[in-house]
Specification:
- By secondary structure, the chain is mostly helical.
- Helix content is about 60%, strand content about 0%.
- The protein has one helix and no strands.
- The chain is elongated.
- The model has no long low-confidence stretch (mean pLDDT about 90).
């Protein structure tokens, strides 16, 4: 009889975001919103 046991330990830590990374993420979200709005307006235009 063989008994195989496998254990995993997962640790989740909150990552500290630098000011530069936060500014970059905000710009990405703003551009995403603009593109989404543009797509919606083109869809309504058709």
């Amino acid at each position: 009889m063989t008994l195989n046991i496998l254990f995993f330990t997962i640790t989740i830590r909150k990552r500290k975001v630098t000011l530069q990374e936060a500014a970059q993420q905000e710009m990405v979200e703003k551009l995403y919103e603009q593109n989404r709005d543009r797509q919606i307006s083109m869809h309504h235009f058709m």
